[in-house]
Design brief:
25% helix; 27% strand; Uridine Diphospho-n-acetylenolpyruvylglucosamine Reductase, domain 2; alpha+beta
C-alpha cells in the first residue's frame, strides 16, 4: 500500500484532466482495501475508487481520498468439458486480460478487445462491443461492502445487468467495491462477426479460417481506425450511450430521417445510434480550442491538451440539448462525472 498527499490525478484518468486529490492510496491487497473502506465509512467519508480511470471525467479537485485499485491476478479455478472458469483481480487491465484469454485459447471476450479500463469496472457498466456484452461470459464477482468490510458474492442474475448498467450503478451504487470477477469462458468459440464491420475487415485482411485471435485482431484494427489513443489524445471512449426508444418513436423518426440506423432492443423498443445523431447534428469533428468532438467518431469527446473537465462537461451538455431539440431524443452520458 502506497500513500500520497496532494497529488495530481492527470496520470490516472484517460481524459488527461489535471486535477488534484487530497490523498491518493494505491492498494494491492484485499485486506488493506477492506480496512480502509470500513475506517472511512465509519468516519462518514466515501473514498473515490478508480481503476484505469477510463470511464470518468473529473470536473473538480477531489477534496478527499482516492483509492487506486491494483488488485491483480488471473487464475483458472475450474472447468468442465465445454468451459473454463477464470478468476481475475479487479485491478487487471481489461485488454491485457483479453489477450491472456486469446493466448490460452479461451473464447468469449475477443469481440471486446481494446476496450479501455480495468476488469473491476467491466461488470459495473456491463461493457460491450460488436454484438457481445460482458454478461454473456460473466459467472460471478466478489465485492467488499463499504459499511462492514465483508466480502459478498454476486452471480449473474444478482448483478441485474442491463444496457451499460448493473446493480452497482443503480440501487447498490457506492455500497460495494469489486475485488475480483470470475468469467465462464468457452473452450470452443462461437464466433460473432455480423456486427459492425468485422466481416468486412476479416475479408479485406484475407482471413479464410476464423479464430478468436483473427476476430480480436480485426476488432483492434477497427477500433484503432476510429478511436483516438488516450496516450496521444485525452478521451474516455464513447461518452454517450446509444438511446433506446419505442418502435413507434423510431418509425416516426425514420419517416423524417430515412437513413437513421436502428437495432432491435427489448420487445417494443429500438436502439438508435447516438453517434449518427451527433454526426447529423453537425458536432462531429468540431473543435473548441483545445477540446472538442473527435473527427472520426462523434461519440468521443476529446481533450487535445490542457482542457478542463468543466469545459468537456459543458460541451456534452450542449450536445445533449441540441440532440433533444433536433430529434426529440434524450441522450445519456456513459462516462461518470466527478
Amino acid at each position: 500500500m502506497q500513500c500520497f498527499s496532494n497529488v495530481s490525478l492527470k496520470p490516472f484518468n484517460t481524459f488527461g484532466i489535471d486535477i488534484s486529490a487530497k490523498e491518493l492510496i494505491k492498494v494491492s491487497k484485499q485486506d488493506d482495501l477492506a480496512e480502509i473502506l470500513v475506517s472511512e465509512y465509519q468516519a462518514g467519508r466515501m473514498p473515490l475508487i478508480i481503476g484505469g480511470g477510463s470511464n470518468v471525467l473529473f470536473t473538480r479537485d477531489v477534496d478527499g481520498m482516492v483509492i487506486l485499485n491494483q488488485l491483480r491476478g488471473i487464475e483458472k479455478i475450474k472447468e468442465d468439458k465445454d468451459h473454463i472458469w477464470v478468476k481475475v483481480g479487479a485491478g487487471e487491465v481489461w485488454h491485457e486480460f483479453v489477450l491472456w484469454c486469446i493466448d490460452h485459447n479461451l473464447a468469449g471476450v475477443e469481440n471486446m478487445s481494446l476496450i479501455p479500463g480495468s476488469v473491476g469496472a467491466a461488470p459495473m457498466q456491463n461493457i460491450g462491443a460488436y454484438g457481445v456484452e460482458l454478461k454473456s461470459v460473466f459467472s460471478s464477482l466478489e465485492a467488499i461492502e463499504r459499511a462492514s468490510g465483508k466480502t459478498h458474492k454476486f452471480d449473474n442474475p444478482t448483478c441485474e445487468f442491463g444496457y451499460r448498467s448493473s446493480i452497482f450503478k443503480t440501487h447498490a451504487k457506492n455500497q460495494f467495491v469489486i475485488t475480483s470477477v470470475t468469467f465462464k469462458l468457452n473452450k470452443q468459440p462461437f464466433f460473432n462477426t455480423s456486427y459492425g464491420a468485422i466481416e468486412q475487415e476479416l475479408e479485406s485482411s484475407g482471413i479464410r479460417e476464423l479464430s478468436i485471435k483473427a476476430v480480436s485482431d480485426a476488432v483492434i484494427r477497427i477500433r484503432q481506425s476510429k478511436l483516438p489513443d488516450p496516450e496521444e489524445i485525452g478521451n474516455a471512449g464513447s461518452f454517450f450511450k446509444n438511446p433506446v426508444i419505442t418502435n413507434a418513436a423510431y418509425k416516426e423518426l425514420k419517416a423524417i430521417h430515412s437513413t437513421i440506423p436502428g437495432y432491435p432492443a427489448s420487445k417494443g423498443y429500438t436502439k438508435v445510434a447516438a453517434g449518427w445523431l451527433i454526426d447529423q447534428a453537425g458536432w462531429k469533428g468540431r473543435t473548441l480550442g483545445n477540446y472538442g468532438v473527435h473527427k472520426r467518431q462523434a461519440l468521443v469527446l476529446v481533450n487535445y491538451g490542457g482542457a478542463t473537465g468543466k469545459q468537456v462537461f459543458d460541451l456534452s451538455t450542449d450536445i445533449l440539448t441540441d440532440i433533444h431539440q433536433k430529434f426529440g431524443i434524450e441522450l445519456e452520458r456513459e462516462v461518470n462525472i466527478i
